[in-house]
UniProtKB/TrEMBL annotation:
The keyword Flavoprotein applies. Coiled coil: none annotated. InterPro entries: UDP-GALP_mutase (IPR004379), UDP-GalPyranose_mutase_C (IPR015899). Its cofactor is FAD. This is UDP-galactopyranose mutase. Pfam families: GLF (PF03275), NAD_binding_8 (PF13450). GO terms for molecular function: flavin adenine dinucleotide binding; UDP-galactopyranose mutase activity. Gene3D superfamilies: NAD(P)-binding Rossmann-like Domain (3.40.50.720). The keyword Isomerase applies. Keywords: FAD, Flavoprotein, Isomerase. It comes from the Bacteria. One of its GO terms (cellular component) is cytosol.
Amino acid sequence: MAIASGLPAGFNADSYDMIVVGAGYAGSVCARRLAEACGFHVAVIERRDHIAGNAYDYVDDAGILVHKYGPHIYHTQSDRVHQFLSRFTEWTNYQHKVLANIHGTLMPVPFNHKSLKLAFGEERGEALYRKLVETFGENKKVPILELREKNDPDLQEVADYVYENVFLHYTMKQWGTTPDQVDPSVTGRVPVFVGDDERYFPLVAHQGMPAEGYTKLFERLLDHDLIDVFLGVDVRDILMVDEDYAKVCGKPYGGEIVYTGPLDELFGLDLGALPYRTLDMQFETLDVDQFQPVGTVNYTTSEDFTRITEFKNMTGQVVPGKTTIMREYSKAYTPESGQTPYYAILEDENKQLYQRYLARVSRLTNFHPVGRLAEYRYYDMDGVVASALDLSDELVAAHN
């Protein structure tokens, strides 16, 4: 792998079989697969000054490994995704746990057996838990909105408490709206767990953190003789797409293009901007060994931030007398601000606007949008990798 800052003078796109826009999961996976499976010479074009996309991590001034764009917790049920990524990293045995600060009491999230007893008292909490088991069975995730629909006074009592204290105010802070206006793919991510497993991802087969960090994983993923990475390059300066073909550096490009950025920004927002939520992340280093008992504490009923992450609790890093925490403040995204678009607002009119942008590239046989921005959807990390592997399969089949 060759990494350069900026494009060299006289950059010749035709010397590459594939151009990948973005050095995050989607782009890096496609670059590696096509370099290996088809012998493609690949140019990876990245707007930022680093690889790894939003998973990028680095050591801060206190010597603590932090995630620049918010906590990234690896978890997947996909054996294929896990096997592929495991080529490029060892994994720690980290099992993510989240607590909610509810009026000063820390309760496990997802809301579970222990949470019920903390919220309702030992006896009443146990009775309510038994009703949940009778209704849904043990070790089951029940989406909070589904629980609210049950016509049972005991279940309604649980639903009302969780909805008000775990879900409602947090969702309003995160999305700037009420939960009923949020797409079900988002609300479905906030379940009650009928069981005693206190992990945030109960029953998920593969969990952990890359032993040397995400950036090191990406360095190995992109480390191939046929992959060149160009950092600090805004692809809009060299890529133009119309209904007939894609031009790179002013000339029609005949190779494959894997595009992982926002489609609306590629076209200058000429149909309007696709709405997102973004995050203001405030880092603070404290002169203590540990600030909170778990990696993430959600503030569901108080504060104007949504959560606090303590990175040492996730990485297992030992730095005596110092810890770095990060508070997250959610707000609306504006493209011209230089902010990072994190969460697509998946309302019908926004999906329709995305489809209008997508139609502009759909007839191009060599232009392939992939990833959470290019597909305008929410993905966990493993979902992005799975989507990129699927696209790679199609490209490999077409060229072998």
